[in-house]
Amino acid sequence: MTSKQIRQEFLDFFKSKEHQIVQSAPVIPHGDKALMFTNAGMNQFADVFLGAGSRDYKRAADTQKCVRVSGKHNDLEEVGVDTYHHTFFEMLGNWSLGDYYKKEAIAWAWELLTDVWKLDKDRLFITVFETDDEACELWAKHVPLDQIIRCGAKDNFWEMGPVGPCGPCSEIHYDGTSNKSGKSLVNEDHPDVIEIWNLVFIQSNRKADGSLEDLRAKHIDTGMGLERIVRVLQNKSSNYDTDIFMPLINKIAELSEKTYGENEADDIAMRVISDHVRMVAFSIADGALPSGDGRGYVIRRVLRRGLRFARNLGLKDPVIYKLVGVLKNQFSDIFPEIEKQYGIVCKIIKGEEESFLKTLEIGLERLDVIISKALANSDTNKIISGTDAFLLYDSFGFPLDLTALIGRERGFSVDETKFNELMKEQKDRSRAASKVTHSEASESKFDFVTEFTGYDELETESEILFA
């Protein structure tokens, strides 16, 4: 089956269970200051779970665009190195908004996996929260007890973030080992035994003081990574070997004139780029822009990280923007915004590439000098100082993780404590200066109206009214 067929079969299955098929929310949670990126399918239903909102349906299903690259859910360093972590991914999910609960969620998950998709029942292991006897008993109707594992809060109590709806969960893990010996590898981050579906039983709200309060109604929130289930159903050993990523990887191989599968370092670079372009392109298509702070800085950092790996492939000119067309061809039917915003996305990415590539060579030369001096010192502990790392960031636009990445390739670590101290000092100076400037500006009288034209153009005529 193709990934498109698998996605559609999921949606059709839950439509047959009287679920409303809803559109993915934007990957940029506009209006939600507490959340940098949409990181789970349940984000768009959080108000319902908290009793502050409602929908005209009680059951829903969709495929949700998600980004996990900062904060609690941070998969950046694993991306491209392992076979199953991504900064951007699709989360297939079904929800009960105060309607059905554990019994139905468990039964339907088992039905889809084993009756519709015909997965080997012996390869499926179930984890439940250590005190959730109800979930354990319900699962025992479908699987032998020795395939059910009780786990603590670290693995089986799901929370969107430090505050908000939460509850115990039950995960379904697929054992891809050759001899079905993967039980001991569940939750051990092993590439052959991966979580494919998480059933969350939303029943509490985590308050700012860390305490839990019961919600007025109980809800179901499930999430299954499309990339992972496609890997299983297409019988691949890596998410990147599926028809989701291979079109991108093939294009990267063509542009770099290298062959995927021949060199591990090149393979990692191609996987990283294929992942990062998805995160950057969909974020921009949903209304975010690369910038110097907040989520804009995260987007810029991921893009520049991708450029670093492109350089490892010998690509020294703008190249990542050339991959957006592959995404448009793949996803315009399910995420039409990628086609609608195609021209703007390409222009923004290309502009960012051109800007960064101008300083990349200079920054790399500077980093080479720093590392060479350290190597010349026989007593060195192979540490890039926080001062040097900050200079690279402040003067050359090098994100800390890019310096750390290049340093690791040379056997160096970075003094992040000192770097963070210098960053804080800079932010404090900036805030102090902005207060003075704001005070000066507020004394002036401006009478004007501005018109936002950014949806249609990247440049426009303007007049400076205060400096």
Largest sheet, if any? Answer: 9 strands, mixed
Instruction: Identify low-pLDDT runs.
Output: none
Q: What portion of residues is helical? A: 40-55%
Q: What's the gyration radius in Å?
A: 24 Å
| H/E element order | HEHEEEEHEHEHEEEEHHHHHHHEHHEH
Report the average pLDDT across residues: 89
Beta content comes to 15-25%
| Overall strand count | 13
Overview of this structure, please?
With 467 residues, this protein is an alpha+beta fold. The protein has helices at 3-15, 46-49, 102-116, 133-139, 153-156, 226-233, 246-256, 264-285, 294-312, 324-331, 337-340, 342-376, 386-396, 400-409, 416-442; strands at 20-21, 59-67, 69-70, 73-74, 88-96, 124-129, 148-151, 157-159, 164-175, 193-206, 212-225, 383-384, 413-414. Strands 1, 2, 5, 6, 7, 8, 9, 10 and 11 form a nine-stranded mixed β-sheet that branches. A two-stranded antiparallel ribbon has the order 3-4. A two-stranded parallel ribbon has the order 12-13. The radius of gyration is 24 Å and the shape is globular. The termini are far apart.
